[in-house]
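Progress report, Aim 2. The chain analyzed during this reporting quarter is listed below.
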Amino acid sequence: MSGAGVRVRYFAAAAEAAGRAEETWDSPVATVGELRAALVARYGAAMSRVLDAGSFLVDGIVTRDPDRPLGERVDVLPPFAGG
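Predicted structure tokens for the chain:
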């Protein structure tokens, strides 16, 4: 993804780690792996713990693939419990 940035939305523990529900990343992040590294660099150990077990929702598809290109919006999802 290049250009206007990526809208990143955070849910549950991810929102707690980020201290916000959403933000726009204008820094150059093009893949899930790059975004993950940027999130950990910005928000530290709390975000790292969320991402170790969580996933990303990109274009309606849940992924943990670090090579997956980003879309205009990415949701950071904590691990979910239940059945």
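Residues 6-77 form a domain with the Ubiquitin-like (UB roll) fold (CATH 3.10.20.30). Residues 32-43 form the longest helix (12 residues). These observations will guide the mutagenesis work planned for the next reporting period.
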